[in-house]
Amino acid sequence: MSTAILTGPPVAGSPLEADLRTLGFDVRTADDAASAAALLAEVPAQERVALVDPRFVGHLHALRLALTDPRFPAAAVPGALTAQAAARPALARAAGRIPVGAGTAHLTDVLTETLTDSLDRDDIGLHRIELGSLVATVALTPAQREEAREAVAAVDDEAVRLRTAVKSRDGFFTTFCISPYSRYLARWCARRGLTPNQVTTASLLTALIAAGGAATGTRAGFVAAGVLLLLSFVLDCTDGQLARYSLQYSTLGAWLDATFDRAKEYAYYAGLALGAARGGDDVWALALGAMVLQTCRHVVDFAFNEANHDASGNTSPTAALSDKLDSVGWTVWVRRMIVLPIGERWAMIAVLTALTTPRIVFYALLIGCALAACYTTAGRVLRSLTRRARRTDRAARALADLADSGPLAELIARGARGRGRTGSFLAPAMAFLSAAVLLVWVIFEKDPASWLTVGVAACSALLAGAAVSRPLKGALDWLVPPFFRAGEYVTILVLAARADVPGALPAAFGLVAAVAYHHYDTVYRIRGGTGAPPRWLVRATGGHEGRVLVVTVLAAALSPEGFTIALTALAVVLALLVLIESIRFWVSSGAPAVHDEGEPA
Question: Which residues of the chain register pLDDT less than 50?
Fold first, then answer.
């Protein structure tokens, strides 16, 4: 139970106390600033506490936004202020600094505003709620109270709550085909006490059943799979809308939402491949290629965003052109559709699954994602080359973590440190060569399952170590992690495909899925403000260069059948290692509550 302290002149007939109890607060009253400070000291330090002026007039949802959102250590609207455990000491200090006696009435007349201003000056992360059309005010006179009540009556706060439950930036399909009704499903869930995590889990289970339908290889199974995949996406939208509607944000929920999206999509790819195999068509290479391409796309997104996380603005001509196009309404939707976000992508997959074959689904997916990748990457390269921004140590650390360099690359980087210039194009050039040398060899060599390939992989590791030997603060250094991902994933794909034995590609699919999970987990730890996975985990998984060396050694030393068994075992070991550590971390994480409001993926 959280505690709300009413401090100020009482107002007869006000529904404020009832509203606060509706929001889950135990309501107490204080006659003046001194008694309010005394009550603050009585509330346990780990509890949320709110200070509310009894003359507050406003929408219930304005109070809900100010007093119950778990993402902010402190938040405020006119007349109401809340502080969680992290901000409680600052609130106690602010209350203790308020003087008493003659000449202090201006400080205590609206105590909540004085304390809000003090917390703002202390820079403890106070969030002032943007109310939009909602009303929140302190009515000091009967006339002001009547005017405020009329303003409250003129706006339906439930309609505002439903509208703001929808993500502000989303794809065309999601915005116009899903959100108009999924928001009502979110409200239905909220009124029945369902949580976003429960809806997220239901979405995952629905997608897994869809994958099972696709795996039957029958037309009825494919049709059912397409319908269920769309239903899974509806639930996927609903969980975020439920979180925003009921303000049930959590670190665990954000992680589940992000990682389950990838699990659903890649499990569905596997289901399509199994279904195609039942019909005599082997599309495992296409399924793995689609997973590799989609994961590399996301790495480009994540690395670019992290590299520019601390940038104050983009003054590049490319950004100016983008802003200009935003003023032409239809171009916004066209550009959002071009990148094939999750809504458009899943709709395309579902429809093609029901009407065509898995091979056609993967061809369409590969072509669409390749075009989208070219469009987004080219735009980001242009922005990076033409902008003037200083990369921070935080951005460089994030890129180094995303690079996922293992012990071998670390050793090489220490030996190469001091050579080259930070901020030049050396790092992305070395990373590109690291991936290109390896991929050209395994793709065009007649027999890549040889000890020569192991030597090439060792040369690739040398180049990878050189790429990360200096802080990644250059304009294009965000390309380093995507180059490493492409080199590792495609090498595994090609070696498995060239083994040309049943089971090699499915084993490679499982291995890449386990490694990709580790990379997504790294991203969301960084986004949650908790830093990358512990170094022992990165070293235990070998880093990207270590895993490539292991796979090439296995290919050279074992028969194709033995290589398949070894890939399967490696996939299982890595999956268990990263999953156990990831689940342990997120369940016990002290990261702040978050919810992903970024661009659709």
Answer: 597-601
Q: What are the E-state strand segments in 13-89?
A: 25-30, 49-52, 56-58, 74-77, 80-83
At residue 34, the pLDDT reads: 83
DSSP output for 334-393: HHHHHT--HHHHHHHHHHHHHHS-HHHHHHHHHHHHHHHHHHHHHHHHHHHHH---PPPH
Q: Whole-angstrom Cα distance, residue 439 to residue 433?
A: 10
Pick the closest to residue 342 from 490, 234, 248 (CA basis): 234
pLDDT in the model for residue 498? 95
Is-contact 155 134, C-beta < 8 A? yes
Q: Categorise residue 517: left if φ over 0, alpha if ψ from -120 to 50, beta otherwise.
A: alpha
Tokens 């959102």 belong to 69
Q: How far apart are CA 286 and CA 269, in angstroms?
A: 9
Residue 74, beta-bridge partner list: 83, 126
CA–CA separation, 192 and 194 (whole Å):
6
Query: Facing residues of 25 across strands?
Result: 2
Check the CA dihedral 398-399-400-406 and report its sign: positive
486 within 8 A of 434, measured Cβ to Cβ: no
- How many CB atoms neighbour CB 167 within 10 A? 20
Eight-class DSSP state of 450: S
Residue 71 to residue 552: CA distance in whole angstroms: 46
Q: Give the dihedral of Cα atoms 467, 470, 472, 478; nearest 10 deg.
A: 0
State which H helix or E strand residue 127 sits in.
strand 126-128
| Cα 570 to Cα 145, 285, 286, 339, 564, distances in angstroms | 69, 19, 22, 34, 10
d(CA 516, CA 525): 14
How many CB atoms neighbour CB 355 within 10 A? 13
Q: In terms of Cα–Cα distance, which of 84, 77, 82, 235 is closest to 157?
A: 77
Which DSSP string do the residues of 554-588 spell out, in sequence order? HHHHS-HHHHHHHHHHHHHHHHHHHHHHHHHHHHH
Q: Give the distance from CA 545 to its chain's centroid.
A: 26
- At 456-496, the pLDDT tens digits run 999 999 999 999 999 999 999 999 999 999 999 999 999 99
CB 592 within 8 A of CB 69: no
What crossing angle do the helices spanning 251-278 and 358-386 adopt, rounded to 10°? 140
Distances (CA, A) of 504 to 89, 202, 399, 444: 59, 32, 32, 19
| DSSP code per residue over 227-277 | HHHHHHHHHHHHHHHHHHHHT---HHHHHHHHHHHHHHHHHHHHHHHHHHH
DSSP, res 13: T
Tell how strand 74-77 and strand 136-138 pair up. Answer: unpaired
* pLDDT score for 598: 44
Q: What are phi and psi of 596, to 5 degrees?
A: -70, 115
H or E stretch at 104:
none
